[in-house]
Every structure is written in structure tokens, then in C-alpha cells.
């Protein structure tokens, strides 16, 4: 048993993964584009994450593009039997590092095949359809055509399970009419809590919720309350923010990312932090359910 077992586990499709996972996005170069500044360090982070007990890695072939998947393959293939690699499709990268929607049948099929090739897999365990929406926030609109394509690829045996990302409750319900949805990946953290009600609903359905930007992403979390709680507990604000997410709901699976071994170790150590009830009450007040941020 490793220390991250303390965070517990939750179902992801027909697999069970530990609730503290790893997000590979930051292993690519600046702006999630091009190769990493330090390839050896990126490989070391992946190997240490798995050696520390992580068995859920989140990635995409449009990170780089192709960079993070190729790093994962180099560092970890042949993969441990319990490792679940989750990828996402729905975008591609321009030569200028722009993020371009890629929704057509051809785009989605090609993306699945490229993820398979670069990861060195015969089947993808979980594929999230990533709605571009408002980039870091969902926008209403039909997703039935795209989910239908993914369901066809699932029937062909290229995809085992399907999830959705950057979506609204209405879009989730639309997708669930087509196929089983095993996870939802949306923007959520201590200060951005628009999905509070959705998380509770998904828990009742046994569906995993995977918050992206759990530590704020490109704009790291900043809160005087968060800092004060961390100081009082003798830990870091980011560890407190991760511990709060783990306590928030048992269906939350964390995928904090980093290209630093020291930061990886700090993130993983958050599972050992037990937040007192009074601290949780303070932290709950950092943002309202509307997502308003305290500064």
C-alpha cells in the first residue's frame, strides 16, 4: 500500500482508480505546445507518479501535440496492469499553438487512432469528448453527433468507455441517451464552484467527476482564507486546496499536473492532510456556488 491509498478509490467505468491521479498536460512545452524544457525530468515525473501508486493518468494527443502521449509511452510502456490512461478528443493545435475545434467524424476518428498510436495501445480505456465551448467553460449546444461517433468507435472496439468534458448538465443528459457516460471533466476548484449541484447529482448516479484546473490552472488559486488555513495547519495552500477537493465528494478524482518532481511529491502528500471541520467551513466560504472568486 502506498500513501495515496489514503485518499480512497472510485469507479471509472469497469475499473477502479485511486482518487489521486496525475494530469500530463504540463509535461509539454510552454503553452502546452512543443517539447518539454527538460525531457528527462518529464519522464522522471511520470515514473515517480506511477511508482508512488498513481494508477490514473489524464492526457490528450493534442497536448504538444503528440508530446505528452509519446512521453507517457516512453516512460511507462509496457504499462502496469492497473494503470488507466484517460485521453480526450475534440480539438487540434494550429501551427501558432492555437486551439482549434475538431468535431467532424473524420477529426474524431483520426484523433482516436492517433491517441492509440502514440500511446502504444490497442484500445483506449476512457475517451472524453472535449467540448470547446467557451474554452475553459461550457456553452450550450448539441453534442449528439460527436457522441454518436464515439459510440460507434466504442462498438468497433477502439474505445472502452466514454466521458465528456467542458459540458453543461443538459449536454450530459443528451450524451447519456446515446451511451453510458463514465466521467465528467469540468473546471472546478475551491474558488470555481459552479458545478456543486452537478457533482452531487453525478454521485447519486455513480459517475466520476474529474475537475480540471484543480489548483487554478494558468491562474493559480489565490485566497487569503486558503493561505490562512494553510499557515495554521503548517502546510501549503495547494495541498489544502487538493485536500478540500478530496473531502468535497467521494466521486471526485484528482488529476493535478506538474513537470516538477518536488511539486509532484507535494501534490501527492495532500492525501495525508486531514482538514479540521472548522477549516472546511472556512474554505467552503471562499466562493459561492456561482463561481465568484475571493481575492
Protein architecture, described:
The chain has helices at about 40-50, 65-75, 105-120, 145-155, 170-175, 195-205, 225-235, 235-250, 260-270, 275-285; strands at about 10, 15-20, 20-25, 55-60, 85-90, 90-95, 100, 125-130, 160-165, 180-185, 210. With about 300 residues, the chain is an alpha/beta fold. It has a single domain (about 10-220, about 250-260), classed as Alpha-Beta Barrel (TIM Barrel). The protein has a seven-stranded parallel sheet with strand order 3-4-5-8-9-10-11, with helices on one face. Strands 1-2 form a two-stranded antiparallel sheet. β3, α1 (about 40-50) and β4 form a beta-alpha-beta unit. α7 packs across α8. The radius of gyration is 18 Å and the shape is globular. Residues about 290-295 have low confidence and may be disordered.
Total number of β-strand segments? 11
Strands in their spatial order, largest beta sheet = 3-4-5-8-9-10-11
Rough outline = globular
Q: Structural class given helices, strands, pairing? A: alpha/beta
Kindly report the CATH topology: TIM Barrel
CATH architecture: Alpha-Beta Barrel
Distance between the termini: 39 Å
CATH class: Alpha Beta
The overall pLDDT, averaged over residues, is 93
Oligomeric state of this protein = single chain
Residue runs with pLDDT of under 50 for 5 or more positions: 289-295
| Total count of helical runs of at least 4 residues | 10
* Major sheet characteristics: 7 strands, parallel
Estimated share of beta-strand residues: 15-25%
Amino acid at each position: 500500500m502506498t500513501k495515496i491509498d489514503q485518499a480512497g478509490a472510485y469507479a471509472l467505468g469497469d475499473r477502479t482508480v485511486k482518487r489521486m491521479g496525475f494530469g500530463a498536460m504540463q509535461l509539454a512545452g510552454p503553452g502546452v505546445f512543443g517539447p518539454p524544457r527538460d525531457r528527462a525530468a518529464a519522464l522522471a515525473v511520470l515514473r515517480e507518479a506511477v511508482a508512488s501508486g498513481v494508477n490514473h493518468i489524464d492526457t490528450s494527443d493534442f497536448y504538444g501535440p503528440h508530446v505528452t502521449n509519446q512521453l507517457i509511452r516512453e516512460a511507462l510502456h509496457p504499462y502496469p496492469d492497473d494503470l488507466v490512461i484517460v485521453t480526450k478528443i475534440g480539438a487540434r493545435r494550429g501551427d501558432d499553438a492555437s486551439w482549434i475545434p475538431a468535431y467532424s467524424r473524420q477529426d474524431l476518428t483520426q484523433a482516436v487512432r492517433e491517441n492509440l498510436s502514440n500511446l502504444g495501445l490497442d484500445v483506449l480505456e476512457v475517451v472524453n469528448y472535449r467540448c470547446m465551448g467557451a474554452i475553459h467553460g461550457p456553452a450550450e449546444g448539441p453534442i449528439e453527433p460527436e457522441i454518436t461517433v464515439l459510440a460507434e468507435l466504442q462498438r468497433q472496439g477502439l474505445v472502452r468507455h466514454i466521458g465528456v468534458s467542458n459540458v453543461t448538465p443538459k449536454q450530459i443528459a443528451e450524451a447519456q441517451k446515446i451511451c453510458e457516460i463514465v466521467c465528467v471533466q469540468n473546471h472546478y476548484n475551491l474558488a470555481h464552484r459552479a458545478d456543486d449541484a452537478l457533482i452531487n447529482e453525478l454521485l447519486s448516479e455513480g459517475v466520476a467527476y474529474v475537475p480540471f484546473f484543480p489548483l487554478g490552472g494558468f491562474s493559480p488559486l489565490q485566497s487569503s482564507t486558503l493561505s490562512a488555513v494553510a499557515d495554521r495547519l503548517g502546510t501549503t495552500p495547494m495541498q489544502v486546496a487538493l485536500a478540500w477537493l478530496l473531502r468535497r465528494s467521494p466521486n471526485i478524482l484528482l488529476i493535478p499536473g506538474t513537470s516538477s518532481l518536488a511539486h509532484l511529491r507535494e501534490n501527492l502528500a495532500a492525501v495525508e492532510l486531514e482538514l479540521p471541520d472548522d477549516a472546511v467551513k472556512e474554505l467552503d466560504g471562499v466562493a459561492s456556488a456561482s463561481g465568484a472568486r475571493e481575492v
